[in-house]
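User: Predict the complex with flavin mononucleotide.
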Amino acid sequence: MLIAVDKLTVYTYNVYMTIVKTASHKTGSVAKPSILIFAGSNRAGSVNKKLARQTSSVAEQLGIDARLIDLKDYPMPLYDGDLEQEHGVPASAEAFAELIKEHDGVIIASPEYNGAFTPLLKNTIDWATRIDKGVLAGKMIGLMSATPGRGGGKRGLKLLHDWLANMRLSIIPEPFSLPQALQAFGEDGTLAPEHQAGLEAFVGQWLQAVSREEAVAA
Ligand SMILES: Cc1cc2nc3c(=O)[nH]c(=O)nc-3n(C[C@H](O)[C@H](O)[C@H](O)COP(=O)(O)O)c2cc1C
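Assistant: Here is the predicted structure with flavin mononucleotide placed in the model:
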């Protein structure tokens, strides 16, 4: 298993370097792809936060400039048009929207609530679109979900995909779904080895997609 993971890492990194070198040959510059990662939960013990953290560490290992944030640090009231008219958009929403704009893409790990993604996630993105309707336009998006049960959040992932797909962005084809997540993490938050290759393949998929777009644009 470990050998398979190493091979995958080397393979993904080589593909990435080939694409980036081709692009930099044309432009004279090498920029690391950058990604914003967060969970659609602000619960302290959130399994989706654990997954987001592991994803960030895999991304860094693959040469991506990864920024992990906690939505708890960007508190926003439930969207209310009257509130917006009276007080404007919260500073936390402006900061969040700015972060999205600074990155090439976003990876979201959302819990599934009654077959959908979370109100926290919807509310946060809704506020960000009040600053710029196209805040996510042109971004490369990866979707993940972790659940304690066997479903792995697949119903919520589908709804999240269909909702985001209207926002002029790109979504990598395969989401990452982690069922029985309470058993998947060690006490130190590390992911069990049997899930590691799948997570690397997911981040590798994002990397290849974003690198391909950069090479085409160069
Ligand atoms: C309102 C609510 C609805 C839920 N609905 C689902 C569901 O549809 N499918 C599922 O697998 N888990 C469901 N759960 C359980 C969550 O997957 C579980 O609480 C999970 O730990 C939440 O993610 P987090 O740990 O990242 O906060 C629900 C939990 C809540 C609070």
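Strands lie at 34-39, 65-68, 105-109, 140-146, 170-171, 176-178.
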